[in-house]
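just leaving the lab so this will be short. what follows is a protein written twice so to speak, once as letters and once as structure tokens for the fold. can you read through it and tell me how you think this chain folds. thanks a lot i owe you, the record is right below.

___
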Amino acid sequence: MARKQKSLQQTARKLIAFTTPRSFVAEQFRTLRTNITFSSPDEDIRTMVVTSAAPSEGKSTTSANLAVVYAQEGKKVLLIDGDMRKPTTHYTFHMGNTTGLSSVLTRQTTIEEAIRATSVERLDLLTCGPIPPNPAELLASKSMDALIRQLRDMYDLIIFDAPPVLSVTDGQILANKCDGTILVVSSGNTEKEMAAKAKEAILASNSRIIGAVLNNFELPKDSHYYQYYGSSE
């Protein structure tokens, strides 16, 4: 059972937009990218947060694949693991996590030393780093504000993988500091009431929702979308 669960976790973290770019799922991430662009025609979104109502809804997989499709478009992208309680991006990209965001915010290392290039062209990663005892305080600090300003000069787009907004305040703190938020909802798992509360929490943080993702939706095999994309990979 443990081996099967580990295999499922590895599959869930797969960078499908990179490994199978012609797949239906990869196309949906490109559609999400386009919809985000159209949602703010008069504003250049430079920083965004990807979060969910509760754990295990797919926000980390979504943030990673969204970062991939933006990089494929030609933007210089930085993906930051802002989940300082249960970080996963270092697993997704098969990297270590000895230094990262927490190390930079506590002045243990420089941002240049902490950022690492990924196998995806134009996509860099800043992992969480050692899990700190005070995640919310670090994310709300002036050091975090200064870091975001510095990174905006270095990248076209910064994407934060944030904790679920109904679990801890970290997601709301990050949402308040960024241009927009994407809410991931798991089909068949996320209750409508929880999704509504997550939306309220994001709006209460003075952020705006620039997109929503319905994750784990099973497409009928007789759908023309499935027939068009499903057999191409």
